[in-house]
Every structure is written in C-alpha cells, then in structure tokens.
Amino acid sequence: MVRKNFATALSVAVVVVVLVASRAFAAQPDFSGVWIPDVKDQKRQETEITPPWKPDVLKQIQHLVAEEKAGRPFLVLSYCMPHGMPSWMLIPHNAMEILVTPGRITMLGEGDGNRLRRIYTDGRAHPEDPDLTFHGHSIGHWEGETLVIDTVGIAPQAYIAISEAAGIPNNGDMHIVERLHLAKPDVLNDDLEITAPKVLTTTWKTTRIFRRYPERHYEITEGECAQEDLSAGKDEFGNDIFIPAPQGPYGSVHVVK
Asked: Which of 55-64, 76-85, 217-226 has the largest mean confidence?
C-alpha cells in the first residue's frame, strides 16, 4: 500500500511539473518563423539615433561616411567574415529565421553562410573564460513576454556598424543586452543596449524592427557572400567552376562615380 501511494504521488507530481512547464512554454510569445528587417527604419536611425562615439572614433566614422558619398565605400562586411554582433541585428538587409526549441533559440540568416546565433534559455551561465567569437556567447531568460538576451565573449574584430560602409571594430570588452518582444503579432522589436568602452563614451540604446508575413510563406535561402564576386565558368577539363569576376578599385559590386 505504501509503495502504491508513493507511486501515485510521484505520478501526480510528474504530471503537475509537466503541466506547469507546458503552460510556461505556451505562455511565451511566438517568435518562430521568417522575419524581414525594416530597412527603412534602419536608414532613419543612421542619422537620428547615432552611437555615442568617442571623439577620435567619430572622426573615423565621419571619414567613412564621406568616402561612401564620394563613391569609395569601405566594405565593413568584407572577406566573407561573419556579420557578428551587434552588426547582425543592426544592419541586416536579408531575412532571418528564428527557431524556438526547448532550452535554445536559434537565429539563421541568409546573408551569408556564417549568420548563426545560438541563444541558450536552459538556465546556464556564461563560461568563465569564453572563447571569443564574432557572435559571442548568448544566454536568455524570459521577463513576462520579453526575451532578455545577454551576450559576452565577442571578438574585438567584430564591428559596430551603422551601415554596410560605416563601422568600427569594438576593440574588446563589449557587452550587449537585448530585449526581444512583439510590438504587434507580426512585428518584432529588438531593443539593444551596447556597451563598448573602447569606442563608445556610454551605453548605446537603439531599437531594430523586424516584420513577419505568414501569408507569404517566406523561407530563407542559401547565400554566400563570395558568389557576387564570381562568375560561372569551366576549367580545362570541362568541370563547372566559379571564376573571379573583374574587380573594380572598391570591389566588383561597387560602381565608381
């Protein structure tokens, strides 16, 4: 009888835990699907919500902006390097897909083959000595219907970019906090707080907007950044290969004015 009662109590406890966990998971907003960046709002923020650059860094940014206007853009996202954080969220022009699974949220981008973010929501902490990467180490937790993401361990070479032609490497010790929430059922806001003491005078707060169009059934596609500099061709044996395209002084995709 004691064993039976214990087994019954254990079964009830398991059911309660499962129900509580299921309800908690169900209560979270649905971030899944393909999201399109609001590029028009990105362009607005380039001039209206600028980072608090340090004086010497501001001079570098002003030079890059002037060079772009003169038809000599600096390629922030060159050599097929990953966009990295925070540029991943600041200046995307391509769609991204969010996959929500127990214990982790994964972001996939079609801009190039390296756009991948893992946000752990299983309660783990940051490593004490994380390996530095372009996207850093991200952990997240829910505060109501807002996903709070904390990112550290970002390589110093990762850019803080305000456009594809203007940005500065963070130079180390950068810390990013994001708050993802649905402003509307299919409008996702990412409120970013970027602390980069080597290049910013104070924490920069900005927001990026992404939109979902479920009726259009968008899917992200394969994208490789090097392909825009290559043309289809044949080698001496008749194999299909890519051949480097003629390069202009600022890259093949840029026209000299």
From this structure: 55-64
